[in-house]
Structure formats: C-alpha cells, structure tokens
C-alpha cells in the first residue's frame, strides 16, 4: 500500500457528513472580507465605503510578487473598509464589509465560457486574476506554484484528494459531486505546467471517490491527453495529505530538508483548488466561494456547505441547527492542524476547509506529565524528527540545538502531540521555536 | 456565547496516559507476583507488600521534600516496588525491600528529577546496591519453592540452576561428581521445572511461564517494544549456542539460559523500561543485543552466576550514547542543493 514512514491513525469521525450532499448556504446579509487570505503580502483595498459592488468585482488588488487579488463574494454596498483582527492570526488587517443586496448580480464577463485555446501564460494569469490559492488550508497563491523558476523541471502534478484530517469531508464530496470539474481543472494545471504525469492521490477510506474519478476519466480527457493520468488509492494514514508525505507515497521521492516540492519535480494542488482553477480559466470566475464541512460534537446537524467567502461562521452553524452543546472550542480546519479561534463571528476564508466545534468533554485541556521517553512521538513523526529531543532543547531555551536537530523541518502535523501519553503540547513548543528562530534569522538579515 | 478555549493544535489526543500505561504494567506483573506467593507463601506477600508500600511512601515523601507535585497515583513507584521485590531472594529479612525501595525511589529516581529523569532502572540499581551492601543476604537465601503451601517453606537452600552450570565442581565438592550434577541439571524435567516454577530463584523469576504471560500481555497491548525482548533473548540464545560452555545436553542447556536466571523478568519487564532504554527502534536493537552479549559473558566468564541485572544496568548507562548514535532518519535529509 502506498504510504510514507511514520504517521498516526486517529479516529476518522467522518461518518456524520461523508454521505451528505453539499448544500448551498443562502446568501448572508453581510460579509467580512479580509485582504489577507493567502500566504504573502495582503491585498490593498480598492473600494471605498459606500461603493456598489457586484459579485466578483475586485475589491483588493494584489501587492507584491506573492499576492493575489480579492473579490466581492456577493453584490451590494460596501459599508466599511476598516482594520479588523485577522480571524486566524489575530493581527489587524484591512477588511472590506459588504452588505448584500440579495440579488447576487455578477460582474461583467464572469461566468461566460471562454475559448478553449489558451497559452499556458494566459492560463496562469487567469488563475492569478481569480485570486485562487491553495484551498487545502495552506493558502499559497496557486499562480505562483504554476510558474516555477525555469531551472526547475516539473514532471509531475499531484492532485491532493487525501483529506487526511479527521472529521472533514468537503474534498470527499467535491470528488464525488464534481469529478469532471476536478479532472478538468487538474488537466488545465497539467497543461500549464507541461508535465508528463498527473496523479490524483486519494486515501483508501474513500473508495467511492477513487471509483468515481476513475469512471469519469475517459469522458473528460477524451483522447487529447497531455500526459499520463493515474488515480492512486493511498493508505489511510495521517498526514497522507501533507505535501511531502503525498509526494513520497505517490512517487517515492523525498523533498530535501528545507526544500520545496519543485526541488523533486513536483507541484501539489488540492482537489478544491483544481475546481477553482477550472472555474477561473474556463469561466473567468474568481474564487468567492468554497465547500467546507461544519461538524463536531457540539454541532446539532453537521453538514457539508457551499458558502461565500466572508460569511460569518455563526451563519454556518445556525444553518446546521446551531450548537447542540455549549461549544468549548471552535476550530477553523481539522482537529490535527486547524486553528482555534475565539469567536464564531469571524468569517469563512479561502482556506477554511472545515469548521469544527468541540464540546466541553472533547476540548478538555489535559494535564501534562513529564516525558517518560516512550518513543511514540519519534515513531509517529512523518518528518523523521525526534520531537522528545526537540522538546528538551526548547524547554532549556536551547534554540540553536533545536535548529540543529531540524525543528524547522517540522510541518506541525501534530502526530507527536496526538500520540504522546504524557500529553505534552509538543506542537505548541515547536511553533514557538520556529517563529523565534525565523525571527532571529530575519533580524540577523 | 461561552468562553472559547484557544490553544495550539492538535485539538484531539490519542486515548491513553502515563497513568494508564503504568497501571497496565503493574497488571502485567500480577501473574508473576501471584506465582511468588504460591511458591513461597506469606513471605512473598510480606516482602512484596513491604516493597510496594515503602516505594510509594518514600516516593511521596521525596516529592514533598523536593517540592514537587505528588504523583504517586501514576503507579510508577508501585512498579519499582514490585520489580525490586520480585528480584529478591525469598529468604531475605523484612527490612531489605524497605531499604531497597527507599534507595530506588529517593536516590535513583527523585534525586535525578523524578520519573523520566533517572538514568538507570531504580529497581535494578537498588538491587545492585543491596547486593553490594549485604552480599550474604542477597546471594544466599534461596528457598526451594513449594507450590500451594502458604504457611511454610522447606527452608532448603540450594544452588540456583545457573550456579550449578557455572560452578559445578565447587558445588559438587571434593570427591563429588560435577559431571553428574551437570547432567542432572541439564535434563528435561529440570528445564520443565524451571519453566513452570519449581526451581529456586528470586521471588519473581521462578516461573518463566507466568513472566511470559505478563510479557505477552505487554507485547499485544504494544506497551513495550518487541525488539527489546526479541533482541535480548535472541542474542542470549545465539551466543549460548555458539560459545563454549558446560553443554551436557544442548537443548536443555539452552533452556537454562533462556528460562533461568531472571532473563524473562529482565527482558520483558526491566530492559523495556522506557525511561532507561533507548528511544528509537534502532537504538533499542543495539540496547537489546548489548544486554544479551553482556548477560552471556557474565554468565559464562564473569564473577557472578547471574548477569541479567548488571547487563541491563550497564546498558542503561550506555543509553544516552546509544541515543546519540541512533537518531531517527530525517525525511529528505539530503541537503538542499545551493542556489
Ligand atoms: S515534530 Fe512536527 S512534523 Fe514531527 S510529528 Fe511533531 S508536529 Fe509533526
Ligand atoms: S511521546 Fe511524549 S512521553 Fe513519549 S517520548 Fe515523546 S514526548 Fe516523551
């Protein structure tokens, strides 16, 4: 079975939503659209208070090399362009508030089918202009990954359909309900990159998705295949969907320590991103909505929802019947890598793959114990690190030692902390150490 | 809306805890403990009880004195007390397990910072300390086990089978018949008794079968790494096979090496102690093989008939070194090409 070394297998907990078709959330009365929803420089607002916008109107211009524009998720009136705390990072970022006019009038040209003959450059520009970013949660601007430096030869495009985070089923539903779009989007990216291989990797806990994609393949690629296409079932093991682990599992290539997928000739894109690329290239549709899973023990009726970017999380929860129990922790993303937030008034972002609400029982903070050197964290670490050792270095404030032992290679997957019987908050320490080390490096120039 | 907790990921944890692990290890020692009571009567119960109670008591006391949180409910002191008692000859006086436990938890464990910080196994270190301080009490005092007789014991002291293997001529005495003694020791019935538990030895090492039962429990629950008992016992077996020794009858001879002299107790319950053994799989192989080599060398050529506890102690000391040379393999360790 295709896989990587290490990893853990937490309870999948996908049963409550895996069979539920995606429902479209009604337009919210108001959306909050932060200018920073991607890795890189935030966009600059280009609308003013009082402006009328249509669905898809550019409201934020990209700034800098690694940046993408931001679009109005619905039509209506801009009621504010202000600094608000970023939903995840907490720093203040410019946010455009739009009151819906309820009409959802598209901006000119959006939704019309474009001609089929693009140059790769046109394709990449369409992806950039549509504000497409990695939708698995990493939110790296997609156009940037599609334009690797000349000296890096890319031979393989990997489409990530693993969705290895417990609880989440959004990608699973997208593969089942929009298989043709997924494959079409993947082929568009493959042509833009000029690769020989296209691989769609899916964990084997989603045999129906593998089946559906394989069935749809001939009709989408209709003979004019630019490259070989394979749909691979991978072992259900967390974090199978982490870029480096996915590449290892599918191609048996190891991204070098400190390197990027392109160093081993790969580009990885999530299935949701593939659909967004298709919408952008074929229909000029900007990224203004996404599929997300609203779930967890504190949600009355978990669902998969198609929602506009900027919709307050509370609207999603209300649509799911509200909270079944008082929520004790609200997480944007999955339980392993998601980010806990302080309020449900924050908006859905381009990278919000799920909204997970835990009740008091499941969110209970466990008391930690001294490390007993059981070695489980080492077995679990997919990056081959020694989390226990790193933890000791960090406790003793020996950041140089932690750096020497490769703490910067930590992908914050959480396997170590998940499995640790002493309940040590290992990832918390690693995040701290990484940001300290990076800050020192920046200071040092 | 109620206050939401905001902490770093991951937001869910695997079931299980240090406490659960420790109490399961205690449970795995119950068969051997019950066996010791069956074989040696109330004495065994008394000695083990004293060992456990004093280990827990001294642990709590030391934690209080050092200003640490009292965590005796994590069961680790219970394990130390149990293991120490199971490593004692049955005829030792009552204060031996008390002194041993005090040494184990106060000096070996809490002095170094408590559970997780000690670098040698507390029970084994305490046993070594007792042997050095009261050699007479700790190396004689073997009683012949008599199953099912709680009140009395025969009071027969005899040489342990491994001592026979080692010093047959001395034990046979002048004019005795060492070859006959060896032949007798290396017979199937004797090995069978070794396995089922009616041959003299420490409280807990009498029955290989009962230890094996606990060991298998630890293996199936994945509480211990199979590499350690497999590597340890395997090495002993192979070395006993290839190295010269008083081999009278090969298979029973090997049986002595494997089932005798506390190897089962050591390989499953003491060499596997997380805190004092290497942390990676590769390191554990090295450790286990090292234990095996030292054990056989001591048994065949060392000054003691028995080598398990010293071998493990020595390898405990080597553990930080082993850890240093057996790091996990870094993903993508090839350095990034510059440029
Ligand atoms: S050390 Fe980092 S990469 Fe390794 S398991 Fe922990 S979080 Fe994942
Ligand atoms: S899993 Fe936890 S207790 Fe075990 S070695 Fe790692 S840090 Fe220590």
From TrEMBL, chain A:
Binds 2 [4Fe-4S] clusters per subunit. [4Fe-4S] cluster 1 binds at residues 371, 374, 377, 420. Keywords: 4Fe-4S, Cell membrane, Electron transport, Iron, Iron-sulfur, Membrane, Metal-binding, Repeat, Translocase, Transport. It is found in: Cell membrane. GO terms for cellular component: plasma membrane. Its EC number is 7.-.-.-. It is a peripheral membrane protein. Its cofactor is [4Fe-4S] cluster. Residues 362-391, 400-429 form the 4Fe-4S ferredoxin-type domain. One of its GO terms (molecular function) is metal ion binding. [4Fe-4S] cluster 2 binds at residues 381, 410, 413, 416. InterPro entries: 4Fe4S_Fe-S-bd, 4Fe4S_Fe_S_CS, Ion_transpt_RnfC/RsxC, Nuo51_FMN-bd, Nuo51_FMN-bd_sf, RnfC_N, Soluble_ligand-bd. The keyword Transport applies. Part of a membrane-bound complex that couples electron transfer with translocation of ions across the membrane. Belongs to the 4Fe4S bacterial-type ferredoxin family. RnfC subfamily. The complex is composed of six subunits: RnfA, RnfB, RnfC, RnfD, RnfE and RnfG. This is Ion-translocating oxidoreductase complex subunit C. It comes from candidate division WOR-3 bacterium.
Automatic annotation (TrEMBL), chain B:
Keywords: Cell membrane, Electron transport, Flavoprotein, FMN, Membrane, Phosphoprotein, Translocase, Transmembrane, Transmembrane helix, Transport. The modification FMN phosphoryl threonine is found at residue 160. Its cofactor is FMN. It comes from the Bacteria. It is found in: Cell membrane. The chain crosses the membrane at residues 20-40, 92-112, 124-144, 194-219, 226-244, 250-271, 283-302. One of its GO terms (cellular component) is plasma membrane. Its EC number is 7.-.-.-. GO terms for biological process: electron transport chain; transmembrane transport. It is a multi-pass membrane protein. It is an enzyme of class 7 (translocase). The keyword Electron transport applies. The complex is composed of six subunits: RnfA, RnfB, RnfC, RnfD, RnfE and RnfG. Part of a membrane-bound complex that couples electron transfer with translocation of ions across the membrane. Belongs to the NqrB/RnfD family. HAMAP family: RsxD_RnfD. This is Ion-translocating oxidoreductase complex subunit D.
């Amino acid at each position: 079975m295709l896989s990587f070394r290490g990893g853990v297998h937490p309870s999948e907990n996908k049963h409550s939503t895996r069979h539920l078709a995606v429902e479209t959330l009604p337009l919210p009365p108001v959306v909050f659209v932060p200018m920073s929803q991607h890795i890189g420089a935030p966009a600059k607002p280009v609308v003013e208070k009082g402006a009328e916008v249509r669905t898809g109107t550019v409201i934020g211009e990209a700034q800098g090399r690694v940046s993408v524009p931001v679009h109005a998720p619905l039509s209506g009136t801009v009621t504010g362009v202000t600094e608000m705390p970023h939903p995840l990072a907490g720093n203040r970022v410019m946010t455009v508030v739009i009151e819906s006019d309820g009409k959802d009038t598209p901006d000119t040209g959006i939704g019309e089918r474009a001609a089929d003959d693009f140059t790769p450059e046109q394709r990449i520009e369409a992806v950039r202009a549509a504000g497409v970013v990695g939708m698995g949660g990493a939110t790296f601007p997609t156009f940037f990954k599609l334009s690797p430096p000349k000296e890096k030869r890319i031979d393989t495009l990997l489409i990530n359909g693993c969705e290895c985070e417990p609880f989440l089923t959004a990608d699973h539903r997208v593969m089942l309900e929009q298989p043709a779009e997924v494959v079409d989007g993947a082929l568009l990216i493959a042509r833009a990159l000029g690769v020989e291989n296209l691989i769609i990797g899916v964990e084997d806990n989603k045999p129906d998705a593998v089946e559906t994609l394989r069935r749809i393949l001939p009709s989408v690629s209709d003979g004019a295949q630019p490259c070989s296409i394979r749909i691979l079932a991978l072992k259900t093991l967390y974090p199978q969907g982490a870029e480096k682990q996915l590449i290892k599992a599918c191609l048996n290539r190891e991204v070098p320590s400190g390197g990027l997928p392109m160093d081993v000739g790969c580009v990885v894109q999530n299935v949701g991103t593939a659909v967004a690329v298709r919408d952008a290239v074929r229909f000029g549709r900007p990224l203004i909505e996404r599929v997300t899973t609203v779930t967890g023990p504190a949600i009355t009726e978990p669902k998969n929802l198609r929602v506009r970017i900027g919709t307050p999380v509370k609207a999603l929860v209300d649509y799911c019947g509200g909270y079944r129990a008082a929520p004790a922790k609200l997480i944007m993303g999955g339980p392993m890598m998601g980010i806990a937030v302080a309020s449900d008034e924050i908006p859905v972002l381009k990278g919000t793959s799920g909204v997970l609400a835990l009740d008091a029982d499941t969110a209970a903070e466990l008391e930690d114990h001294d490390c007993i050197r059981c070695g489980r964290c080492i077995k679990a670490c997919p990056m081959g690190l020694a989390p226990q050792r790193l933890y000791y270095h960090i406790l003793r404030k020996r950041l140089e030692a932690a750096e020497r032992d490769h703490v910067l290679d930590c992908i914050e997957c959480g396997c170590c902390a998940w499995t640790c019987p002493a309940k040590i908050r290992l990832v918390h320490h690693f995040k701290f150490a990484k940001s300290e080390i990076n800050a020192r490096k920046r200071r040092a120039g | 809306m109620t206050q939401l907790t905001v902490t770093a990921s991951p937001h869910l944890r695997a079931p299980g805890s240090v406490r659960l692990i420790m109490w399961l290890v205690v449970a795995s020692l119950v068969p051997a403990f019950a066996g010791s009571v069956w074989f040696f009567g109330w004495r065994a119960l008394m000695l083990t009880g004293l060992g456990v109670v004093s280990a827990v008591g001294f642990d709590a006391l030391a934690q209080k004195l050092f200003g640490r949180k009292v965590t005796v409910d994590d069961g680790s002191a219970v394990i130390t007390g149990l293991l120490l008692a199971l490593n004692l000859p049955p005829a030792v006086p009552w204060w031996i397990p008390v002194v041993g436990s005090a040494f184990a938890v106060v000096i070996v464990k809490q002095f170094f910072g408590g559970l997780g910080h000690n670098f040698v196994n507390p029970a084994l270190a305490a046993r070594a300390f007792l042997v050095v301080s009261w050699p007479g009490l700790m190396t004689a005092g073997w009683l012949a086990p008599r199953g099912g007789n709680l009140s009395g014991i025969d009071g027969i002291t005899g040489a342990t089978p491994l001592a026979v293997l080692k010093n047959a001529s001395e034990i046979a005495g002048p004019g005795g018949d060492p070859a006959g003694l060896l032949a007798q020791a290396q017979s199937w019935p004797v090995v069978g008794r070794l396995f089922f538990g009616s041959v003299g030895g420490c409280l807990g090492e009498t029955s290989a079968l009962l230890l094996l039962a606990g060991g298998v429990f630890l293996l199936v629950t994945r509480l211990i790494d199979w590499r350690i008992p497999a590597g340890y016992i395997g090495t002993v077996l192979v070395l006993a096979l290839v190295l010269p020794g008083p081999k009278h009858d090969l298979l029973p001879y090997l049986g002595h090496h494997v089932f005798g002299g506390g190897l089962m107790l050591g390989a499953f319950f003491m060499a596997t102690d997380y805190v004092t053994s290497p942390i990676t799989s590769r390191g554990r192989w090295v450790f286990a093989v090292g234990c095996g080599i030292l054990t056989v060398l001591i048994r065949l050529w060392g000054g003691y008939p028995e080598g398990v506890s010293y071998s493990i102690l020595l390898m405990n000391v080597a553990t930080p070194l082993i850890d240093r040379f057996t790091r996990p393999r870094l993903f993508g360790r090839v350095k990034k090409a510059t440029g």
